[in-house]
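### Sample
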Amino acid sequence: MSREIVAGVDGSPESLAAADWAAREAAYRGLPLRLVHAWRWEPLDLPLAQDPAVQQKAARDLLRQAESEIASRHPDRPLSAQVLGDTPVAALLETAKDADLLVIGSRGHGPVMGFILGSYGQQLIAASPVPVVAVRSREGEGPEQVGGEIVVGQTGDAEDSAPALKVAFETAAARGVPVRAVRAWSLPPLFAFSPGSLALADEAGGLVPYEEKALREALAPWRERFPDVPVTEHVEMGSAGQVLLSQSGSAQLLVVGRRARRGALGRRIGSVAHAALHLAPCPVAVAPHGDDEPQD
């Protein structure tokens, strides 16, 4: 299997920022970068644009411009570019299925997910079999936190959070930076208490030690696999989204898990990923969980 990082480009400042981030990450990991632009002929209202050849040339010119800009910034990085004749979601999912990461642009803060990621972003994040990184354009903002931590949310048991922890530790190891592993917890409702869960909490010395133990156990195999990556453990009572955001102010990447579920309007991501994509000040990586609902 050929390893690479794939970035979707559409000519927007957000997609160029995503391609630039992807190129830097490819350099950290020693991987090639592939830029992808999806194009499929659609009749338009403008008479001159009805010709498929005109639209196809515009698509190729757009990709060529993006390729030239990224190549000039990262001249030593192996780079390929490809126009795919399909819808953006189908094209990116097919191209990135064997990639390490799929990187897309995000429009930043906003009240509705579609306004943040564009019309295709949520579909990609909800359906992708590989981790998706959403990157905002930083025009008019401060510089990226190059030396910051990789912050990752850990939830459930070790198996539940393994995909997110894998992304966090691989990225931290490639960049030579620490990981901050965050586990949020809250008091369960009375009906959720059971003799078994109470016994486990009692054995650990209480609810807080129980949560701390769960985080240590989830981190143990990744500490062993990446012994040179410093790790800070943070356990805090509160909403998972709020706790994660409070710890990501100086992060260079926030990694969360995805629990995609089908709703009336299609596949939806979990509330923690939703909050991170809305409000995190840094790029956000969303890793698929193994217990996502299967694809059709």
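The longest helix spans residues 52-73. This sample (UspA domain-containing protein) is used throughout the tutorial notebook.
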